[in-house]
From TrEMBL:
Matching Gene3D superfamilies: 2.40.50.1070, Nucleic acid-binding proteins, Vaccinia Virus protein VP39
Binding positions (S-adenosyl-L-methionine): 379, 410, 431, 479
Transmembrane region(s): none
Source organism per UniProt: Daucus carota subsp. sativus (Carrot)
Protein name: Uncharacterized protein
Active site per the UniProt annotation: 506
Keyword field: Methyltransferase, S-adenosyl-L-methionine, Transferase
Matches recorded under Pfam families: tRNA_U5-meth_tr (PF05958)
Length: 557
């Protein structure tokens, strides 16, 4: 699951600081106390207090000075997690000084021993060594890999507590990054929409092949060997592109997708097949990734599965035994091979071959049928996407007289625009990926929609003439990926002055920043904001992960 990389064009000076949000700003603050005070607010805790009950530094290496505590790398501390912040990390503070430590896989209220692994200017990162007392909302994670896998981070937190923490995070970011008051949010911000189905909700999983099964420190030495049995197929260890945790089942994907994974795990290491995993350090080996996608047959609504092998070269005979094994699974209707000869880790091939069945599968969303190819973007939680798109439609308040123009920015395969097209005059969609644009056009045809135009273009590089390519829209939908919108696009929207903007975001930090720009302006660039935030609706699309989606309605003020 990708983490946000915030490019420098997004930075600006704000009167707050958050250790994990520093690159949202133009100037990093030298004083850790300012950072701590702001982190307090971002993480929903009261401002830094000397009476904090958290984090008693049990200093093995140095004696902590209460007023100028700074941890050493390797030092172990007894800590208490106070809250969950951006990227799902637990926030802990050192008693007396309030120095902030960030730790993966700890839950609010949990007391634990941690070791300092990394120091930054105004905070440090800690690895949990041992839980002393768990959080009251701790539950047993159903997945055997949950404590080591880079996919789920909070399976061991009661789902209700997960969504509470996500809602709080959106609120705090909107206040401290977006500069909206708590009072304003009382009427604007809606309670988070939880996800009814918390397992088997993902329609796409991508696993990687690796030459060695990665094991966490505590399991090292258990059953490792030097033959093919040690080859890995699974998910990356958190933070490592070259370490693969072998998984035989993933509780986030569908049941037939797990049957496919099990069938492949069953045979791919057999030495007579001559299959080798790609080694991303030596660049030797054949099998790079395995992508399993679950769609639905438009007529029967039964699941249909696409399997995509990403390989370093085109050798269909080598894949034949795997293809024969999985084509016997009734739900498998498509087996693809993307050949990627580059040394990079991407799963998009330079060439794509159909090894069995058809080259696309189908999915139904808000009554429309979408054809999805191996590399198309499609919302990964279809059921929750229905709810998300309904919220977007509600925000759009379409008149129904077919008079409105919709501009769908970052349109992907056109799904949002197409679900609105039948009730408006015309939809114009913009997207950088050429294949997504051709999928969008094909999906329009498939559904008999002829009032949608999809244009390939980079929205980070729009020129002065961008607005000449379409009539002035009544409704703008903008759904950027995690870095949010480029300043050029913000300026364009402020000049365009469309009556309604619906901002769909998968990163509440950049969302809060962009809402601030659109509503309050960009003082350092002498730009005035001209929108009013009318509603802010967090939606949980991805239980057990730190990801949060929001739908924001902005109206011209
Ligand atoms: C979060 S997805 C949204 C897709 C679509 N709205 C949907 O709901 O399925 C963001 C989309 O923005 C596209 N994108 C990313 N950077 C872009 C850029 N600089 N210019 C245009 N599109 C971009 C991505 O390829 C991706 O399809």
């Amino acid at each position: 699951m990708a983490t946000a990389a915030l490019p420098s064009f997004h930075i600006r000076r704000l009167n707050f600081s958050h250790p994990l949000l520093l690159n949202l700003r133009t100037h990093s603050l030298s004083s850790s106390s300012t950072a701590l005070a702001s982190l307090d607010s971002v993480s929903s805790e009261p401002a830094q207090s000397n009476t904090s009950t958290t984090a008693n530094p049990r200093n093995d290496n140095v004696k902590a000075k209460p007023t100028s505590f700074y941890p050493k790398r390797g030092q172990t501390l007894e800590l208490e997690c106070e809250s969950i912040a951006y990227k799902g990390k637990g926030v802990c503070k050192v008693a007396d000084t309030g120095f902030v430590l960030m730790c993966d896989r700890v839950l609010p209220g949990e007391r634990f021993i941690g070791r300092v692994t990394r120091k930054k200017d105004n905070y440090a990162e800690v690895k949990k060594l041992k839980t002393l007392s768990p959080h009251r909302d701790a539950v047993e994670a159903p997945c055997e890999y949950a404590s080591h896998c880079g996919g789920c981070k909070t399976q061991n937190l009661l789902y209700e507590a997960q969504v509470r923490a996500k809602e709080l995070q959106v609120r705090e970011l909107t206040v401290h990054v977006g500069r909206f008051s708590n009072k304003e949010l009382e009427t604007i911000m809606k309670p988070i929409v939880p996800c009814d189905i918390q397992f088997h909700y993902r329609n796409k999983m991508e696993f990687s092949f690796g030459p060695k099964k990665w094991k966490p420190q505590e399991l090292l030495g258990e059953g490792s060997s030097n033959n093919n049995d040690d080859y890995a197929l699974g998910l990356h260890a958190p933070g490592f592109f070259d370490k693969v945790l072998n998984v035989d089942i993933c509780l986030l994907q569908s049941e037939p997708a797990n049957r496919v994974l099990a069938a492949i795990q069953d045979i791919w290491r057999e030495s007579q097949l001559g299959l080798s995993p790609y080694n991303c350090r030596s660049h030797a080996g054949f099998l790079k990734h395995l992508m399993i996608r679950t769609g639905r047959d438009a007529e029967t609504s039964l699941p249909e599965i696409m399997v995509n092998f990403v390989t370093a070269s085109y050798e269909p005979d080598l894949l034949k035994p795997l293809v024969e094994k999985i084509e016997a699974i009734p739900e498998v209707v498509s087996i693809m091979n993307n050949v990627n000869t580059s040394v990079g880790n991407t799963s998009v091939g330079e060439m794509e071959y159909t090894l069995y069945g058809k080259p696309t599968i189908r999915e139904i969303l808000r009554g429309l049928t979408f054809q999805i190819s191996a590399n198309s973007f499609f919302q990964t939680n279809t059921r929750q996407a229905e709810i998300l798109y309904k919220l977007i439609e509600d925000c759009a308040c379409i008149k129904g007289d077919g008079s409105e123009i919709v501009l769908d920015l970052f349109c992907g395969t056109g799904t949002i625009g197409l679900t609105l097209a039948r009730r408006v005059k015309h939809v114009y969609g913009y997207e950088v990926v050429p294949q997504a644009i051709s999928d969008a056009g094909r999906n329009a045809k498939l559904n008999g929609i002829d009032n949608a135009t999809f244009i390939q273009g980079d929205l980070n590089k729009i020129g002065e003439n961008f607005g000449n390519a379409f009539p002035k829209p009544d409704i703008v939908i903008t759904d950027p990926n995690r870095p949010g919108m480029h300043m050029k696009l913000i300026k364009f929207l402020l000049k365009l002055r469309a009556a309604t903007i619906i901002y769909v975001s998968c990163n509440p930090a950049t969302c809060a920043r962009d809402l601030d720009y659109l509503c309050h302006g960009v003082a350092e660039k002498n730009i005035n904001g001209c929108y009013k935030l009318r509603s802010l609706q967090p939606v949980d699309m991805f239980p057990h992960t730190p990801h949060i989606e929001c739908v924001c309605l902005l109206e011209l003020s």
